[in-house]
Amino acid sequence: MNKWKLCTTKEIKPRGWLKRQLEIQAEGLSGNLDKIWRDIRDSAWIGGSADGWERVPYWLDGFIPLAYLLENDDMIARAKTYVDAILAHQKPDGWICPCSDEERATYDTWAVLLIAKTLTVYFECSGDERIPDALYRVLKNYYDMLSAGEIKLFGWGKFRWFEGFLAINFLYARQPEPWLKDLAKILKEQGANYDEAIPLWKRPLNRWRFDTHIVNLGMMLKSEAVSHEILGEDYTDHAEDLHEILAKYNGTPVGIFTGDECLSGLSPIQGTELCAVAEQMYSYELLYAATGDKKWAERLELLAFNALPATISDDMWTHQYVQMSNQIACQRFPGKSLFRTNSSEAHLFGLEPNYGCCTANFNQAWPKFALAAFLYSKDSVISAVPVPSEFAADGKRILLETNYPFENSFTYTIETEKAFTFRLRVPPFAKNYTVDGAKITGDEVAFAIEAGEKKTISVQFETEPYFEARPHGLVAAKCGSLVFSVPITAEWKMLEYERDGVERKFPYCDYELIPTSDWSFAYAAPELSVSFGAVGDVPFSAKSPAVTLKASVCPIDWGYEDGYDTVCAKVPDSREPIGEAKTIELIPYGAAKLRMTELPLLG
């Protein structure tokens, strides 16, 4: 396997539209949760009375790299305040979670795995030398209690056992003590075997289960990649086998799997939880770093440029719990929920629609994606996901100027004190790929960069829009890594209220999205044409999209799902045209908060 190292915030800085996206995140919910949301502001992790389980570690897991990527001193100081409080409450025996000694046996230690991972993130960003010792004590206590039978994996911890390997691997690289390998074995032995659940993935039921839970599955894909070395096992790329089954029976045009909250089959009107988007992205980042297999980078782009921005408002103050491929409205269902295992408000944009885990956890997606732009090994650097950014480490500096994925031109400026090999990953959809004007073939380009050399590399390629076949005789429009949808304009109906002591107040209120334009279309012709514009202040903006497709559509009698008047039917009631064809603009899926993505193609 070709193993790469992910960058830290000391080694990479976002530029261009990517930096702007992170700034929007910092100005929105992510950067303000500790001020307005009691589960963070008053958490038991810092001595308060609110949530003392996953929400503070989840939030810090994204807030910390966001703060350091933006070099925001205020956010860095606030992150340190939380870490200081967490470390101050660590027990003498190493236990770190906020529960009494008597409650440890019934405390779901998913939180132990999560806080351990988060502390490694903090160390990589801050270099705080308290962290390795604190982490050693956390994991040694965890090992002692598990091996003695005082606690065991159950619930979420049982189904997320592999999440602990991020911290175990970090500590073992610094202190290779045998008990860490023993801890790794205990976690795998007590953890769930997802292979046993595969039959349940092929025919999802309206039943909540850990082994069909979409976030667990998004995390699970990286399990072999992060665990095989310390377990002394061969790597088999089992993630590909599992991915193939999940995609075949639950896939979507944007690379996520339906799951609201558990697997939901091949339906464009079933949802996918935002936590799953964030976790699946992180799994792909780790899989690409561990294997060097380009398919994981390609899949990562699909998620990051489509599924992620689609389910968060432009100002990043609100988000959905679940997004839908064909989403004609986001209004509370007056009766039975459409979703298999989610409430009737899961698709609203708000502070914590359906459940608050995504409120805390979506914060990691953009910052960790930024850290995956460049990967490196001892003598090589690869432009893994070519978004605007700057890499600087070990005497090497590489600046990438681009508006990708909104356009396909790239300028790399390289300065180095040491010789190294610079690599470019050529995407499979690139047409007429040129480097400094010379046409290139193959799936990778390598450059031998000499010590002291200063070099500029210009790259360009073209992308052709096309229709991808989808289940039920439908198609989705794609161009490069972007998926396109028929946009539906919306009235954003503000909902300010308080429930269970949690206040929704502008800008962190809830919204229903009520459609104000037509949506009942079929594609009338197979031709698509692409137009490029400027990237604005909101990169994934529906008002001024940076790239669009022109398509011919005609109205059809699509109809509503039985029992609902705010959900289109799973498949059209009729595919016969009921009006003249017309040309419309399709916009990126990630920009269209209301959209039709999977449509029939007539003729």
Main features:
alpha+beta, 25 strands, 7-stranded antiparallel sheet, 603 residues, 18 helices, globular, 32% helix, 22% strand
Describe it.
The chain has 603 residues and is α+β, with helices and mostly antiparallel strands. 32% of the residues lie in helices and 22% in strands. The chain contains 18 helices and 25 strands. The chain has a seven-stranded antiparallel sheet with strand order 2-7-8-9-14-11-12. Strands 15, 16, 17, 22, 23, 24 and 25 form a seven-stranded antiparallel sheet that branches. A hairpin with a 2-residue loop joins strand 7 (389-393) and strand 8 (396-402). The longest helix has 18 residues, at 130-147. It starts with a strand and ends in a 7-residue tail after the last strand. The model has no long low-confidence stretch (mean pLDDT 97).
